[in-house]
Design goal:
It contains 13 helices and ten strands. The model has no long low-confidence stretch (mean pLDDT about 95). The protein has helices at about 40-55, 75-80, 85-105, 120-125, 145, 155-160, 165-175, 180-185, 195-210, 215-225, 225-230, 230-245, 250-260; strands at about 15, 20-25, 60-65, 70, 110-115, 115-120, 130-135, 140, 175-180, 190. The chain has about 270 residues and is α/β, with parallel strands linked by helices. The longest helix has 20 residues, at about 85-105. Helix content is about 50%, strand content about 15%.
Length: about 270
């Protein structure tokens, strides 16, 4: 249905109202595997304020168009950021908004992780209140492989979900985890065959949309105090990520990605 409300100005997110106050949000850049450029990153950061303010929405479900949930940061955006203080400063503010707006949104959020989730995509996927993943989806934080510190969400949520040992392993190596393994580790609530993920997310959303709204929202608020208590750790990690965007390793990181080869980071030169 047409929107004459806060969602009308979004260009890379699409919206569908469903029964019981469920709002289905789709990351809609399938030709780029829903990778986040500056525009999409900004939309993912601010949409949760609009969800919270929208009186018709009781619960939000977010998924990706096509085969991916979101394949991380657009490489061209990474190149534009490297060494650019103003862009880095803007991104630091926006990545903080992305994390804290999800945490502070009083409506429950369900992520239907239908494929690869990296970068801003995995932020939304794992910070959602209930995450449902395809068994063969791949989730990961590959910041270190790019030559930057793991920032945007990793320090605030990975240790809480997976435990410190696994968080250290995946964040220091940059390796990916499948949806099935993510369920085993406790990082997502459920892992299902890919064609069942969205239906299950919508079923859960219907349960939340027909439940006691105050009880559900206040329970979410209480639980998210675990994340708020880790806020200083997140703030530091975000600053460290942006600091490393001003160094030489990130240039080698994105160049290696462009050339489809292993990086040879200046900081690791013999």
């Amino acid at each position: 249905m047409p929107f004459d409300d806060p969602f009308k100005n979004y260009e890379q997110l699409t919206f569908e109202r469903r029964d019981h106050g469920v709002l289905l949000i789709t990351i809609d850049r399938p030709d780029k595997y829903n990778a986040a450029d500056e525009g999409l990153h900004g939309e993912l950061a601010r949409v949760w304020r609009d969800v919270g303010a929208d009186e018709q929405t009781r619960v939000a479900v977010i998924t990706g168009a096509g085969k991916a949930f979101s394949a991380g940061g657009d490489l061209a955006m990474v190149e534009r950021m490297a060494g650019d203080y103003d862009r880095v400063q803007h991104m630091l503010r926006e990545m903080s908004d992305l994390v804290y707006n999800i945490i502070d949104c009083d409506k429950p959020i369900v992520s239907a992780i239908n494929g690869v989730a990296v970068g801003a995509g995995v932020v939304v996927a794992l910070l959602a209140d209930i995450a449902i993943a395809a068994e063969d989806a791949k989730l990961g934080d590959g910041h270190v492989k790019l030559g930057v510190a793991a920032g945007d969400h990793a320090a605030i949520i990975w240790p809480l979900l997976a435990g410190m040992a696994k968080a250290r392993y995946y964040l220091l190596t940059g390796e990916m985890v499948t949806g099935a393994e993510a369920e085993r580790l406790g990082m997502v609530a459920k892992a299902l065959p890919r064609d069942q993920v969205l239906d299950e997310a919508l079923r859960v959303a219907d349960t939340l949309g027909t439940g006691s709204q105050q009880a559900i929202r206040l329970t979410k608020r209480s639980l998210n105090n675990w994340l708020r208590s880790a806020g200083p750790t997140f703030d530091q990690s975000a600053a460290y990520e942006m600091l490393t965007f001003l160094g030489p390793d990130v240039v080698e990181g994105y160049t290696a990605l462009r050339e489809k080869r292993e990086p040879r980071f200046p900081s690791a030169a013999d």
